[in-house]
Design goal:
heterodimer, A: alpha/beta, Rossmann fold, 2 domains, four-stranded antiparallel sheet, B: 278 residues, mainly alpha, MetI-like fold, 11 helices, NitT/TauT family transport system permease protein (chain B)
Chain lengths: 259, 278
């Protein structure tokens, strides 16, 4: 079976007036159906750049990106992108925010609307459909953003630190919700995070990047037991702490070598 | 949580809160009426002093006229009907200038938002035109469009269009780029990006330029009328000045103040209406 995403020798340079800087260099990555991959690493290792390239928002300077074997040339409805904050449109109701993707891709029909409303209800947002974003708490808003992303039924979900702006308790709840939802739908996901324990708890594979220029340093396979357990409980499993320390040490090294 | 608080206590607490709220509202109301009272007496004192000053000879009656005479003049002009064509002319010019100025300015902003290249090309021209006192172009407009309605509206447009363009374009540019990123990640086209994000996000800014433009339009129209008109409130002022009828000048000024305020309030009302649904 073809991998959902494949990055081949991807290099990207940011060009500015004063200098051109290499964000990532010769990156190879392949993610298969149903996998949950986390990208971690010190700042400046090109995590967000990689996501933007996969999302089709950025064209890589060199190399190619294949989505289910096809070359990308811009954003595709198969890929959902969730940002650090909810970025709901304050002038739209919750329902209209959730339907934004369907509206933009011209797939807003009676049944797709009903499905999205059901999804809102599944996320515990029933009765909030006609409210405006300002009336909702941060956790609720991020759940609406999740529905907005899932409404177009993407096969691949890109998550750019979607939990980082939330309170700790809400963050843990949302990690569980996202992980459970994606597992149920069989959605492939790539998560960018700076929270190592989050990365280990939710993913099946953690990819550690090193900075200047961004490159893969090491890949950690997460044991089946931790992978199967909901994130909140996974943190208490034997082996979790050891794995955390291993990743932590490696990341320290990656950060230090750069100095 | 203390859900089982004694019912008696809850009742008295509600009463106490009610009382507090009533006091607060009463205090607020009292302040409001105080402001209103001082405000209106200030106006009254002004008119009384003006009247008394002119009658007692503290100020030159010929130059400054006095309120009863001014209001008498306004009343006579209203009754005889000679006021209406002038008022209609000026209000018409202002309304046309205001609406066209806002539309053209916003449209221009859309165009330069659409094409960053064009925006870069036009930038210095806009800066020059914006810094320039547009009223100085008045004579050129008269030569080009003839002394009359068109020249006056064009003078008004020259004042309102560029500033509208700059303000609206700026508000387009200051829309949170992440909101744009959201629609781009869904593969939105440039026109979708504009209609779904840029325009609704900067709508309040566009609407608030309306308020600025009302004032600007009045400046343009009155100046234009000073230069060319054969009717209109600006013309009445110039005419009154030339024949040394300052009662006419003063009454025109009062009418302008009243009508301009009414127009401004109308725009504020429209703004409220437009923004209340968000």
């Amino acid at each position: 079976m073809l991998p959902v995403v494949e990055l081949k020798e991807v290099t990207h340079a940011y060009l500015g007036d004063r200098e051109a800087s290499l964000a990532i260099e010769d990156l190879n990555l392949s993610v298969s159906q149903g996998e949950f991959v986390s990208l971690v690493g010190p700042s400046g290792c090109g995590k967000t750049t990689i996501l933007s390239i996969i999302a089709g928002l950025l064209q890589p300077s060199r190399g190619e990106v294949l989505l289910s074997g096809r070359k990308t040339a811009g954003p595709s409805p198969e890929v959902g992108y969730m940002l650090q904050q909810d970025y709901l449109f304050p002038w739209r109701t919750i329902e209209d925010n959730a339907l934004l993707g369907l509206e933009l891709t011209g797939r807003l029909t009676g049944s797709s609307r009903a499905k999205s409303l059901q999804l809102l209800a599944d996320m515990g947002l029933e009765g909030k459909e006609q409210a405006y974003p300002a009336q909702l708490s941060g956790g609720m808003r991020q759940r609406v953003a999740l529905v907005r992303t899932l409404a177009t039924d993407p096969g691949l979900l890109l998550l750019d630190e979607p939990f980082s702006a939330l309170d700790y308790q809400i963050k843990l709840q949302l990690e569980d919700l996202v992980s459970e939802t994606l597992m149920r739908r069989g959605t492939t996901a790539i998560l960018v995070t700076h929270d190592l324990s989050e990365a280990i708890a939710v993913s099946s594979r953690v990819i550690l990047l090193q900075p200047n220029p961004g490159r893969i340093r090491r890949i950690f396979e997460i044991p089946e037991a931790i992978r199967r357990t909901p994130p909140l409980y996974a943190r208490d499993l034997p082996g979790f702490a050891e794995l955390f320390h291993e990743v932590w040490k490696e990341m320290e090294l990656a950060g230090r070598e750069e100095m | 949580m203390n859900t089982e608080a004694q019912p008696r206590e809850t009742a008295s607490r509600a009463q106490w809160l009610e009382q507090k709220h009533a006091d607060y509202r009463k205090k607020k109301l009292r302040r409001k009426s105080q402001v209103l009272m001082v405000r209106s007496s200030l106006l009254l004192v002004f008119f009384v002093l003006w009247e008394a000053g002119a009658r007692m000879g503290w100020i030159d009656e010929l130059l400054f006229s006095y309120p009863t005479k001014v209001f008498g003049q306004i009343w006579d002009d209203m009754v005889s009907g000679s006021l209406w064509p002038h008022l209609g002319m000026t209000v018409g010019e202002t309304a046309v200038g205001f609406i066209l100025g806002t539309l053209i300015g916003t449209l221009l902003a859309v165009v330069i938002w659409w094409s960053p290249f064009l925006s870069a090309v036009l930038d210095p021209y806009m800066v020059v035109f914006n810094s320039m006192p547009k009223v100085a172009l008045g004579p050129i407009f008269i030569v080009m469009f003839g002394a009359g309605f068109t020249a006056i509206v064009i003078t008004t447009l020259s004042i309102t269009v560029i500033i509208t363009t700059l303000v609206v374009y700026n508000s387009f540019c200051s829309v949170d780029p992440n909101l744009v990123k959201v629609v781009r990640s869904f593969g939105a086209s440039k026109s979708q990006e504009f209609c779904k994000v840029i325009l609704p996000a900067s709508f309040p800014a566009v609407v608030s330029t309306l308020k600025v433009n009302v004032g600007m339009s009045w400046v343009g129209v009155i100046v234009g009328e000073f230069l060319v008109a054969k009717s209109g409130l600006g013309y009445l002022i110039i005419y009154g000045f030339q024949v040394f009828n300052f009662t006419l000048v003063m009454s025109s000024l009062l009418i302008i103040a009243a009508v301009a305020t009414a127009m401004y309030q109308l725009v504020v009302y429209v703004e409220k209406l437009l923004l209340s649904r968000r």
